[in-house]
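Mods, move this if it's the wrong board.
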Amino acid sequence: MIRFNCEKEKMRFLKAYDCYDNNARDSLAAVTHLMPISDFPAYPTTPDNAVIFATTGMDGAHYCMVEDGDKMNIYIVEPCGVVPDRVCLIGHSISEMLSYGLAIMPMLFSDVFDLEKDEFLKELKHARYEWMREINSKRFKDDLNALEKIYPIKEFSASEVYDILRAMNGR
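Not the wrong board. Structure tokens:
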């Protein structure tokens, strides 16, 4: 049985991101809304025993991981979002979460749960157009290449990710 150590995984994740300028608009963190954080307060809706490892940079929304027997669950927690106090499962490993997140960037994971599929894909196309310069920048590509050396990333279509995330959350 594989045991996950969320604190160790958090340190690995923070180290993977430590070379990035997370404040630059064309950084991986800014485009994906996945900004590493070493210290962040838990909210009442943050799952028990969660290890918070990143924030979206908006309204207290944060990413956390929770050990669940032989697997790890990764959640996005939105204490002040469109649907307050929403907690959504977004993967079972950092690699899986990154694979899903990159397929739908620069939209937030939560947009999958706020929009119908056709509307989501239309909004995503518009968002990618708005962020095209950043997504194609040298900084973004260098950040992504460095991250992929630590976390294997599988390619998914946005449509596949939409369906996967909805199914993982019973929707």
